[in-house]
Amino acid sequence: MSEATTVASSVAILLLLLTAVSSAKAAWRYRDAHHFNILMVVASHVAANAVRPVLFGGLVHFGLLFVQPHLLFRLVQHFRDVPAILRRGSLAFAIIGLLAYAVLGSARPSWLRALLMASVAILYAFAGAAFSQEGRRKAGVTAKRLRFAALGTWIFAALFVVNTTATFVPALSGPGYQVNRILAAAALTCYFLAFSTPRRLRANWQRAEQAKYLTGVAALDPVERGHRASDDLAFAGTRSVGNAVTLVALRDAPHSTDLTVRSSSDPALVGLRIRPTGGVFGRVSRTLTSISDTAEACEPEVASRVRPYGTRVLAAPVATTANTWGVVLVVQRRGSLFPDDDLRLLAELGSYAATALDHAHLIAEARERERRAADRRLREAESQMSMMLDSIKDYAMFVLDEHGRIVTWHLGAQHVFGYSSAEMADQPAGPLFNMTDGEFAALLVRAHDRGSHERDGVCRRRDGGRFIGTTLIRPLEDDADDLRGYVAVTRDVTERRDLEARLRQSQKMEAIGQLAGGIAHDFNNLLTAILGYAEWLGHDLAGDEKHWTQILEIQKAAERAAGLTRQLLAFSRPQMLQPSIIDLSKLVSDLVPMLGRVIGEHIDIVADVTPDLLPVLGDRSQVEQIIVNLAVNARDAMPDGGRLTIRSSNVRVDGGAHARGAPSELGVMLEVVDTGIGMDPATQARIFEPFFTTKEHGRGSGLGLATVYGIVKQMGGAVNVISAPNQGTTFRLYFQETQVRPETALGSLPANTPRGCETLLLVEDDQAVRTYLMRLLDSQGYQVIAAQHQADALDAVRGTRDPIHLVITDVLMPGGTGPELVRALDQIRPGIPALYISGYADDVILKGPGPFARDSHFLQKPFAAADLMSRIRQILSRTT
Questions:
Q1: CB 747 within 8 A of CB 550
Q2: Positive or negative CA dihedral for 282, 287, 290, 296?
Q3: 732 to each of 669, 708, 719, how far by Cα in Å?
Q4: How confident is the model over 642-674, as pLDDT tens digits?
Q5: Which of 115, 492, 598, 764 has the most CB atoms around it within 10 Å of its CB?
């Protein structure tokens, strides 16, 4: 055990020598008090161990032992106050002890030795307690070095306790010596670790403290870490370095020099503004190096605030190579036993905080760039969307809040409703749809519950006008339960509804026309036979006045029946234009009874016609349509009844004096006068425009007067309108006179009716008409091949070699149509002309392809014998 003790003692002395050398270098390098005091403590231990106790009677050895507590108190004074009585008492004790050993020498009593050793132990214990308390206050490298200093001091105290005990118990002197050697070696080793810590060990302790700081902030978001950097730095600085107060002052702006205390262990210092000058903050900001100095060396505004906390300050920059953020300052009551370690740790903490601020700043800048880019993209998208929405003027698009008030009002909504966005901002939307707030709120509830709601109804414009609008309302939601508002889209469908109504009316008229066409086909076949045979009978009884008059009445009745058929077809079916000589007076007289049924009994109809009216050339069905349209318009202008007067007269028209565009020559005027509500000049200027109407929705198509104008212009005439509000309306229609006169003789063919000798193919499914036409054509010298339908006609043509000069065929027959027959005959006998006869005009005639569409030879049933003979000769003369 003695050899081990010797080795341990030798190692301890070697470590003590290394500590002495290191302390001497530090004292020489820094030339400050705390390094010199450390050197004094270490040197006293070196000298005490180097001088043997027997040298000079042990006077030097024990003198060094007695002075060591006083030297330790000088170290303690660097970080805390030592009572003056204790400082002076330790020095007096060293002197008294040294004198006692010098005077008494070997004759000193045991109790004196024990007393001196116990006193040294007590002084060492006080110093050890001071080191321990400061070690608990500090952290990092300083704390660990203080703990080793405390441990070594406590071991020395124990060593002197052992010596005191051995004085009273002689049996313990031998073992006590060995224990003293071990305790001394242990204490000297602790002093080595405390006062001359190996660099690698100190670096490990430093990294451990840094890791502890980094672990506390690593889990934070980088931006949050930057926000908390000053608080974390203040906390770490107080815990690791300072024992009074810590403050972190950062720049107000990136390019500013002024600092503001952002965090402090004393909240009263937060917000303190500092202007760095030549003080601690200014030097650290300029040099970016750590500084240890007195509190008085700080800037005046700082010195006055931190002076009560202590006398020493440690300051380090909060900076990286890229940015300088500020300064961290630690105020210590009396300083530090190891200021280099404290300053180094404070600098590392400042660097970590600056790095955190750098990262936060970079990430914040990146996020800000991303946010700005996103905002820019959003603005671009919103601009594009707004431009797109504003370019859609047929739809009113707007956004409502959850209470039904308008938030966004697009240009299309302004176009449809007439209100500007400024007028509609935060306004209730219910009045736009002619609804109360309660009714509109119920509509929004339905839209929310169903996901959408579509409404067709009357909408209101800014000028008070009304229109039919289709509105779709959808809720806007951020998530399933977070309702934000609604988006509404309204379209003006008034015109579409009018078109739909006209389409339905057209389809209805088409259906009526199909029925009327079927009836007219058979009815006109009967009338053709009736008129034909009556005409034939009148020819045979030309000398019998009594029977001739009866036959004339039959013809008149049949012609009136034919007129009724034409009127029925005029309302429902397209007609082939058949210009003919028209007596407008007779046409009006024939049409008045039917007009009475059309416009109602509450309106009196007066026909004032001229008997010897000049003839005009036109299509009878179209002229009838003109009169009917004007009569219907007059009826609508007289809802409470009135008078409708239809006049016809011969006039000499002066276009400059009477009618715009009327011919300045002899002609016929047809005048339609009503006693209705009349029209103002603005309405008169537009009455002939297609689809213009003053009637309420669903009552008129706006095509009646446009049709009148078109037909009159087609006949080479003109229209003049005279009207005023509440003074009725007069329509004057002017037509040119035609030089052709209608035939007035009845009962016989004209004497100059052309005859022929050609071969004709007659195809007619009605037996009565076929028989009549065969006899008529045969009487005029024609060779007739008769057939009932298409198959018979084709067989007859294939069965004869004689040339066929003309085909006379009905349009609609069992087994095929007339145009189909003509196309089939063209394959057998190319170039045969055709004359179509029909009881009514059908789409087969008007739109079908083939020879009919090119030649347009058509004769409407019923027809007079003279008309048929003239048309036959007209066609045959073109082919010869």
A1: no
A2: negative
A3: 6, 12, 6
A4: 899 999 998 876 544 344 444 456 789 999 999
A5: 764
Other Cβ atoms closer than 10 A to 312 = 22
Which is nearest to 648 in space by CA: 711, 619, 606, 704? 606
In terms of residues, how long is the chain? 880
Would you say 801 and 784 are in contact if contact means Cβ atoms under 8 Å apart?
Answer: no
Structure tokens at 595: 């007009």
Tell me the whole-structure pTM to 2 decimals: 0.41
Evaluate the CA torsion angle 586, 587, 588, 589 in order and state its sign. positive
* Residue 874: φ, ψ to 5°: -60, -40
Measure Cα distances from 387 to 381, 382, 394, 423, 607 in Å.
Answer: 10, 8, 14, 21, 62
DSSP code, position 266:
S
How many whole angstroms separate alpha carbon 473 and alpha carbon 463? 24
β-strands 666-674, 729-736: how paired?
A: antiparallel
Q: How many CB atoms lie within 10 A of CB 486?
A: 24
User: Percent helix, strand, coil in the chain (nearest 5)?
Assistant: 55, 20, 25
Please name every residue paired with 259 in a beta bridge, in sequence order, or none if there are none. 251, 274
Q: From 748, 842, 819, select the one nearest 542 (Cα to Cα).
A: 748
DSSP code, position 405: B
Render 720-748 in DSSP notation, one character per residue.
EEEE-TTS-EEEEEEEE--S-------SS
Counts for the chain of helices (H) and strands (E), in that order: 28, 25
Q: Kindly tell me the sign of the dihedral angle through the C-alpha atoms of 801, 802, 803, 806.
A: negative
Q: Where does 51-106 have alpha helices with state H?
A: 59-76, 84-104
Q: How far apart are CA 530 and CA 862, in angstroms?
A: 9
List the structure tokens of 880: 């010869």
Position with higher pLDDT, 243 vs 305: 305
Phi-psi category of residue 251: left, alpha or beta, with phi > 0 → left and psi -120 to 50 → alpha: beta
Give Cβ neighbours of residue 880 (< 8 Å, ≥ 6 apart): none
Give dist(CA 237, CA 753) in Å, integer.
133
Alpha-carbon span 811 to 575, nearest angstrom: 14
Please give the Cα distance from 574 to 844 (Å, whole number). Answer: 11
* Lowest-pLDDT range of 232-236, 415-419, 692-696, 746-750: 746-750
Residue-wise pLDDT tens digits, 365-389: 887 888 888 778 777 766 766 666 6
Burial of 546 from C-beta contacts in 10 A (0-12 / 13-18 / 19+): exposed
